[in-house]
Amino acid sequence: MPSRRRNYIIQRLDSFVSDGGAKYDVKLFTIEHVLPQNPEKGSEWDQLWPDQDERAFWLNRIANLVPLTRKHNSAAQNYDFATKKKSYFQNKGGITSYTLTTQVVNEDSWTPEVVSERQKTLLALFSEKWDLKIDPSEELNDDEEIMFHLAIRGCNASGCVGNDGSFIVKAGSTIARDTTPSCQSSYIEIRKNLIDNGIIVDGVFTQDYVFDSPSAAAVIVGGRSANGRREWTTLDGRQYGKVVGHKIERSSRNGTKSYFQSGGTGDKAA
């Protein structure tokens, strides 16, 4: 998410668990990863989180994020959890500015199990406070339509898996206003065709549209190179690749309207 939106959500969450006394100065407020983005090989983090896919899945989840003042965040390093708590998450008096950060400081360790349980707790809190009607512990049924969402570079899109393994972007989804240099020319041309044909009007999909893969859909929507299996997520933060897995095989379009036909650009190319 853009920093402004991300910071707002973290601030609202902190206000849910605090007594209302915290001050959210936009000039000082920032967010720090507990599990660092690039832990050193052989470090405690590397030992606690040996599965790189699991590490990538939880890295940017809300359970792994804590609010800090910019002063603290500028000094943050990839030290072990105990050192990080003492040196960066607290001031010299052993006090933190935010309740969310205090909760993390009170944890003895920071393992995948701890983060997973914290994620469920925080999602349940959002569900209660914002009346979202979401049960974070509910398992998905194999036959239900699972909705995925993407919000990068100002876009706001929703989609689902097609019967043949395709990916359907829903009408009303918005795209990023422009493209970056990482967006391949072929995708830029397809974007232009969708706009010229009235499928996208004023940055909004006017109808459901079928793409050959989640990555193809993510590139068109986000206007940059994207791994759709990671970037399309459910409302409770589960990645497409984790939910759908590798069982869905791409098949021919059989006449289905799409610019991405069999043999075209797929996940790896995107």
Helicity, as a percent range:
25-40%
Low-confidence stretches: 136-142, 246-270
Strand content: 5-15%
Q: Which value, in Å, is the CA radius of gyration?
A: 21 Å
> Can you list the strand order of the major beta sheet?
3-4-5-8
**What's the number of helices?**
11
Pfam families: DUF4357, GmrSD_C
Domain GmrSD restriction endonucleases C-terminal: 5-124
Protein name: DUF4357 domain-containing protein
Domain DUF4357: 191-238
Could you explain how this protein is built, in words?
The structure is a single chain. The protein has 270 residues and is α+β, with helices and mostly antiparallel strands. The chain has two domains: 127 residues, no CATH class; 97 residues, no CATH class. The strands form three sheets. It has a four-stranded antiparallel β-sheet with strand order 3-4-5-8, covered by helices on one side. Strand 3 and strand 4 form a beta hairpin. It is elongated and about 60 Å long. The protein starts with a helix and ends in a 26-residue tail after the last helix.
Chart the SSEs and their pairings.
Elements (H helix, E strand, L loop, with lengths): L2 H15 L11 E5 L10 H5 L3 H8 L5 E5 H4 L7 H7 L11 H7 L6 H18 L18 E3 L6 E5 L5 E3 L15 H12 L3 E2 L2 E2 L3 E3 L2 H9 L5 H4 L8 H5 L26
Antiparallel strand pairs: 1-2, 3-4, 4-5, 5-8, 6-7
Summarize this, please?
Residues 191-238 form the DUF4357 domain. It comes from Muricoprocola aceti. By secondary structure, this protein is α+β, with helices and mostly antiparallel strands.
